[in-house]
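Hi again,

Forgot to attach this to my earlier email, sorry! This is the prediction with magnesium ion bound. I've pasted everything inline since the attachment limit keeps bouncing my files.
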Amino acid sequence: MVAGSDEEVTEPPRLDDRRRVGVMGGTFDPIHHGHLVAASEVQAWFDLDEVVFVPTGDPWQKPDRNVSPAEHRYLMTVIATAANPRFRVSRVDIDREGPTYTIDTLRDLRAVTPGAELFFITGADALAEIFTWREPEELFDLARFVGCTRPGYTMDPQTLAAIPADRVTMVEIPALAISSTDCRERHRRGEPVWYLVPDGVVQYIAKHDLYPRPEGSDLRMPPTGGSAPRAPLESTMEGSA
Ligand code: ATP
Ligand code: MG
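Structure tokens for the complex follow:
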């Protein structure tokens, strides 16, 4: 079902045999089930041959916080996606010098998947920022954009209207109110992240102590009958907010 429409809309069957490749950019610090469900839904909806997860390099819109080293984020993404034969992980952003811009991601992926039709997958929060990204008009030439619904965010209709209609589709996906920020904060507070992120990712975080508790803090359990306070959602980055 396409978000915002009253009726069921069926994606037209393929008219050509071009390969269809989804591109899911993200900081993935850590990757969580919200990312995986979005990728899986869009893969099925658009009959994509594969979805390429692209962990960012240097996130220029998150200079105010320490992002985990790219190799850790890359490996967590590999662990989370390994079982799905249609998912793979690309190093194009982490191997490129300098800040990550989606335009470079798409150009690099185009070069390695010649002739493929690219579908850039984003949450509604990230898509809402698209006109702040570098070379937005060129982005629409390189890929179709698929905006996934995300609890707590709505896509501003004016921004949506400014994107060429044939280059963007909003898709309603099962709502998962999970964010990497919340996963990091939960871990720092000593709360579980089991079932918010894949099991292997929980174990990887523990093994490398990726989100250590602040010094001197005690293990804090949620109070009985209520939940511990949540950290506010953090500001976003281009293409992977
Ligand atoms: P952070 O809190 O660190 O910003 P995040 O959970 O937003 O992390 P990102 O790596 O920033 O994750 O997001 C990558 C992409 O996945 C973005 O396009 C984002 O909108 C989308 N996304 C993240 N979480 C969800 C979710 N729960 N539902 C739908 N889309 C999501
Ligand atoms: Mg984000």
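The longest helix spans residues 33-45. The radius of gyration is 18 Å.

That should be everything now.

G.
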